[in-house]
Design a protein that fits this description.
- The chain has 365 residues and is of the alpha+beta class.
- It has helices spanning 3-10, 57-65, 111-116, 124-137, 153-165, 183-200, 211-217, 235-240, 245-251, and strands at 19-28, 31-41, 46-50, 72-77, 80-83, 96-99, 171-175, 204-208, 220-225, 228-233, 255-261, 265-268, 271-274, 284-289, 294-298, 307-316, 320-327, 330-337, 348-353, 359-362.
- The strands form 4 sheets. A 6-stranded mixed β-sheet has the order 6-7-8-3-9-10, sandwiched between helices.
Length: 365
Amino acid sequence: MDARTLQNTRLDRNTAPALTLSGISRQFGTVRAVDDISLDVQPGEIICLVGHSGCGKTSLLRIIAGIDAPDEGQLTMGGKMLVSSSIFVEPEKRNIGVVFQDYALFPHLTVKENVLFGLRKMRKDEAKARVDELLALVGLAAMADRYPHMLSGGEQQRVALIRALAPKPDLLLMDEPFSNLDRGLRARVRSETIALLRALGTPVIIVTHEAEEALSTGDRVVLMRSGKIIQAGPARELHNQPATRYAADFFCDFNALDGRVDDVSVQTPVGALALPDNLRQTGDVAVYLRPRDIEVISTETKAQDGLCGRIESRTYLGETEELTVYLDDQNVRLRVRTDQHIAAEATHVCVQIDWSKAMIFAKNE
């Protein structure tokens, strides 16, 4: 079976969801940590819950695992009710695997013993065969008798992963599983982990606070804020078509310009764009432009069309560069692509905008 066929099989929307959350809420004091969350997870699907610290993603994960109970809502797995107003199935009876942020390996047990820990109800010969299979799958067979402190961070993460997978859970939960790894190692371990999870077909919910990690990992990305789901969908959809200003700020490197809607256009400090037909906002708005949609050309090279002004400051940021340009009697900060190669000695530039790519949001959204 090729990769495309495998993915289509895994994400068949005609099958019953592996997990269904309906109206899940949880309040701590005056804080509504989880606020009316409804979500389906399909068989074999990898979901990324993403958002800033305190948005409710870990609280939601704890409710799914059974570590905490919601105040309201229902939770079903494979058609079986686990949580309702009158039902609460204990975590050990949910067949859910969990990989914690700190991995939670037992320091006094070897790698093999750590993985065996969740298989105590299995026959010894079957348990041993399962452990040997998983250790070989992640390339740790030679380290079976080592202790956790003898392993690298990436190796510890793999042990935690296969320990959670050993009992063949119906759902796997991973709380910031890559955050303790160095940046260079993180990308490799993440890629290897996702490849393994896709091959096994276990549905997974991964919690992360990093936009890049969410976009590169999940079949579907769920952005949370203040206990609510702000937007959910495929990674490209959230990156290319953010539904709110918060989503745009979270996933993309935008220029946010003040705008004002009049009868025929939206006025900004770098020019005006024609009034979009579907624009619902009036008055003050925020106009978002990606760096790639702004062209900045030095006037020292040749005369240019567009709005021209004087460079007041510039800051190199790697892939982009932030310019403060005095345009039309005001300073405007613009983040542009570094590959435009604006000369270091340039003092005056002209700015040209691809207004067709602009996004408009309510000012105080």
